[in-house]
Amino acid sequence: MTRNALYSSIIENLNTAVLLFDRTLRLRYTNPAGEMLFATSARQMRGMTARDLMPDADTFINALQRALATLHPFTERELQLRLADSALLTLDAIVTPLSEQELLLELTRVDQHLRVTREEHLLAQHHAHRAVLRGLAHEINNPLGGLRGAAQLLERELPSEALKEYTRIIIGEADRLQNLLKRMLGPQGLPQRRLTNIHEVLERVRSLVLAEVPGGVRLERDYDISIPEFHADPEQLIQALLNIVRNAGQALGEQGTIRLRTRIQRQSSIGQKRHRLVARIDVIDNGPGIPVHLIESIFYPMVTGRADGTGLGLSIAQALINQHGGLIECASRPGETTFTLLLPIDNGVRHD
User: How many structural domains are present in the chain?
Assistant: First the structure.
């Protein structure tokens, strides 16, 4: 094999997309990884401009033109690019001007790495908060129990019903705080798994929420009926989804749309664990979105964007889905908020 043939073979087998542009930023060559990235054959891509391939990347294309003019290479990390097929990707880009006539662009997808890192962070965050809450609940429950017991003893000694009203308030508030702690801790028992149809779960949630929201709020379905039944606790899934869909309805107010979408994902990872099949459930609303300062802590207990909210619904939902080996993620911008539930499908193999 000649040296040129060897180099060509190496480039053809790279996982990195390699694109060669001329001085007008028209594509002259791309390798198979480039074809996969842009979902277009090299023959069709050849002659297309950088703007044709990346229509919304004005700032990046201007940087490519400057690199050609100055012959200065540059690297851009975690570049957000919307390609011609409207897919938004996160990429690392290495730009190397070979001369004033040619520019080499290397694009590497980092979506998967970032997603795994984000999922691991969410899982670690959730487990850490649960551990803190368990410790806090233990420390608070003991004095609360003593307070309640003392109030009961005092109530027996008081001669006046008017005075007993104060001890009843103490007992009632102690009970309320204990119930709040239980809710903050979330589900305590293991899921009672049985063969479950996720669309029956969603239809149940949909009917419950439709009875609560104003007439101007629509709940649309976009189901993938190929998702098989799998072993799960339907009551826990209903509770988790109900917390999320109710939140979406409250965010919309008097009118808007909530879309319930299901898809099957094959050979998919949740954190570091890989699954052959994963059910993906998206709850999408076209409301105002989640405030930027809350998005990173939305699954924390007691975090809420509503004045009348308890901040427990999403924390409990995350705990319920975690018990199934799954995860809830959130992405939000004004006009579109998506909560994504990922549930591994075990094909009948019980893990509890």
Answer: 3
pLDDT at 126: 61
For the full predicted model, state whether its pTM sits above 0.85: no
Strands 88-97 and 230-232 come out as: unpaired
Shared-domain flag, residues 328 and 221: yes
In this structure, are 11 and 35 located in the same domain? yes
Q: Record the tokens describing residue 95, joined without a space.
A: 């730009």
Is residue 96 within 8 A of residue 21, CB to CB? The reply is no
185: nearest Cα among 339, 318, 342, 326:
318
| 226 and 307, same domain (yes or no) | yes
HSE, side-chain direction, 13 A CA sphere, residue 31: 18
Residues in contact with 340: Cβ distance below 8 Å, sequence separation at least 6, in sequence order: 280, 281, 282, 328, 329, 330, 331
**Does any domain span residue 351?**
no
Residues of the chain with pLDDT below 50 are: 347-352
Q: What is the pLDDT of residue 112?
A: 59
Tell me if 103 is assigned to some domain. yes
Does any domain span residue 166? yes
* Phi, psi dihedrals of residue 83, rounded to the nearest 5°: -85, 175
Exposed, middle or buried, 92 (CB in 10 Å: 0-12/13-18/19+)? middle
Q: What is the pLDDT of residues 314-347, one digit of tens each?
A: 888 888 898 898 988 888 889 999 999 999 996 4
Question: Distance between CA 217 and CA 228 in Å, rounded?
Answer: 30
Nearest to 244 by CA among 207, 186, 284: 284
Angle among Cα 248, 252, 255 to the nearest 5 degrees reads: 130
Residue 260: per-residue pLDDT = 96
Q: How far apart are CA 321 and CA 113, in angstroms?
A: 22
Residue 242: inside a domain? yes
| Claim to verify: residue 167 and residue 200 sit in the same structural domain | no
Domain span at residue 78? 3-109
